[in-house]
Amino acid sequence: MKFKIFSIDFRISYTFLCLVAICLITGLFKGFLCCIFAVIIHETGHIVPMYRFSSLPQKVEISLFEISITGKLRHQSSFKQNVIIIFCGPLANFVCFILFYLLYLFYGSLFEALAYANLSIGLFNLLPVMSLDGGQLIYLLLRCRFSDGISEKCVNIITFIILFPLAALGFLILFNSKYNFSLLLVCLYIIISLICRNNKYY
């Protein structure tokens, strides 16, 4: 599905639309909406500084395992500008977590799911994995001292070092709880997102 908003081309994959349909059928749509809202906040956190630095987004692709923002002149932005663009995604989630949590304390459970969805998305994207913001930040830092190839290899190594303990912990939680496989799903999501991204850095 394709459409355009403010000169930005949006593309949404059919697999993502199938996930929406499944959530509607299974009654998980409320939780799904909270997550989608947190993801929109996250991506808006990236897009706002892109406009500020004239690295205008041209295309946003939304698939089941990745949201990709292609920016005009993004690769010509300075180190500082790229760090700000990347970090502002999780930062937007953390700010919204605080706001929604305060609303939850004063107005009840209506805002609790929104608060924790933003916290989860923010923390998840700061994992030092090359397909996430944390890995992108590490790559930028390494590139200040090393070549692109060495920086990519270092981030790849860090990614696998992070994935193995996460997967082991996921199996441990599954065996102890008998049904909680959420962390294993996170690991699977990361692996598939790495394959889909194919070593693309910001």
Folded structure, characterized:
The chain has 202 residues and is of the alpha+beta class. It has helices at 14-26, 29-52, 79-107, 112-125, 133-143, 148-177, 182-197, and strands spanning 2-5, 8-12, 57-62, 67-71. It has a four-stranded mixed sheet with strand order 1-2-3-4. α2 (29-52) packs across α4. The longest helix has 30 residues, at 148-177. The two termini are 24 Å apart. 21% of the residues are buried. The model has no long low-confidence stretch (mean pLDDT 79).
Keywords:
single chain, 202 residues, alpha+beta, 4-stranded mixed sheet, 68% helix, globular
Question: What string, H for helix and E for strand, traces the elements in order?
Answer: EEHHEEHHHHH
The proportion of strand residues reads: 5-15%
Termini separation comes to 24 Å
- Low confidence ranges: none
What's the total number of strands? 4
Please give the share of residues in helix. Answer: 55-70%
Shape: globular
Look at the structure and give the mean pLDDT. Answer: 79
Strand order of the largest sheet: 1-2-3-4
Main beta-sheet strand count, sense and barrel state: 4 strands, mixed
SS field, number of helical segments: 7
Q: Nearest-angstrom radius of gyration? A: 18 Å
Overall SS class: alpha+beta
